[in-house]
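Here is the promised in-class demo. Please do not try to memorize the tokens; focus on the logic of going from shape to residues.
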């Protein structure tokens, strides 16, 4: 699975909020992998974002939240999940 994590320094002004971390989660959704592999990547990110250890790490940042977006790359794809603030189990 080709997965790349990027930390970015800018959010769109419409979404600008104080957070410790802005995280872009990227996944390959091109024809080089199967639909099952794409689904596996999606489920892995969803499980990771709701994992108690990850939520604890987010809560222990100075602001208690992070901004996250999920992007798949392939022809015609892009942001699958727009920027969102994660600050606990409900938002995760």
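The designed amino acids, position by position:
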């Amino acid at each position: 699975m080709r997965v790349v994590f990027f930390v970015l320094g800018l959010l769109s002004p419409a979404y600008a909020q104080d957070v410790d971390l802005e995280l872009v989660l990227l996944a390959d959704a091109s024809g080089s992998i199967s639909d099952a592999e794409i689904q596996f990547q999606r489920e892995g990110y969803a499980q990771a974002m709701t994992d108690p250890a990850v939520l604890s790490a987010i809560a222990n940042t100075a602001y208690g939240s992070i901004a996250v977006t999920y992007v798949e790359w392939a022809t015609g794809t892009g942001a699958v999940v727009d920027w969102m603030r994660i600050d606990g189990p409900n938002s995760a």
